[in-house]
TrEMBL record:
This is POTRA domain-containing protein, FtsQ-type. GO terms for cellular component: plasma membrane. The chain crosses the membrane at residues 21-39. Signal peptide: none annotated. The keyword Cell division applies. GO terms for biological process: cell division.
Length: 242
């Protein structure tokens, strides 16, 4: 008798599809490679640098101070490092740096305002910023300097306080003053001459609070205004108002 060998049964299993995590891993791997290639490609280099708010500094000076170049890589830019570098300039009060994908950089500056000019050799005028810094590299002919003007031999601590006070008054008011000078025998006072032929005596530390009161006396005839503990006006014709 011939015995038949039983046929082997093939075990049919279910065809399981790859896990979604595999596809996710592959996608992230490829995306990482593409991103790395992009970050080091010419496409990721900064092509536009926009600077706003600069009046005292040139664009080239700003780029040099921040160590920025057109071909810098976008993702290598450190906003805080750029900001810290620019704040070392005495002209700059504040900075905001903004990166905008894919290749634009924006720098917004706030400079200290020029509040007065220091006379130098009676020929040149050196801008004085609201923080008391003198910009010798921005000296201009004294004839074209805006006011007020400070004589070089008058510069001391009270003048420095006066500068800080002037920075707090409106620009339209500040431009009405011609000169700032010391008051002999009064170490805390300054004398300010206005374009309306008035001499204003005031403590340097009180300019911010009291100098705006000058607007109430501006239409008075030529004379002297005292804005001290009490206020009074003495005209050059001998009439007083207080």
């Amino acid at each position: 008798m011939v015995e038949r060998i039983p046929s082997l049964r093939t075990k049919v299993g279910s065809n399981r599809s790859p896990s979604p995590l595999v596809f996710l891993f592959i996608f992230l791997f490829l995306a990482g490679i593409l991103l790395t290639l992009f970050m080091r490609s010419p496409l990721s280099k900064v092509s536009q640098i926009h600077i706003q708010g600069n009046r005292l500094l040139t664009k080239q000076q700003i780029l040099q101070q921040a160590n920025l170049q057109r071909d810098s890589f976008f993702f290598d830019l450190d906003r805080e490092s750029i900001r810290s570098s620019l704040l070392k300039r005495p002209e700059i009060a504040d900075v905001k740096v903004d990166r905008r994908f894919p290749n634009r950089l924006y720098i917004f500056l706030h400079e200290y305002p020029v509040v007065a000019y220091l006379s130098y050799q009676q020929r040149f005028a050196i801008p004085v910023l609201s923080n008391g810094v003198l910009l010798g590299n921005h000296a201009c002919p004294i004839q074209v300097a805006t006011r007020p003007l400070i004589e070089s031999d008058a510069w001391d601590e009270r003048i420095f306080l006066a500068i800080k006070g002037l920075a707090s008054v409106p620009v339209t008011l500040r431009k009405q003053f011609l000169t700032i000078d010391q008051v002999s025998g009064q170490p805390d006072q300054v004398m300010i001459r206005s374009q309306y032929h008035h001499r204003i005596y005031i403590r340097a530390s009180e300019i911010k609070q009291k100098l705006p009161l000058y607007l109430s006396f501006r239409n008075h005839p030529p004379g002297t205004l005292y804005l001290l503990r009490s206020f009074w006006f003495h005209s050059d014709t001998g009439l007083s108002d207080g």
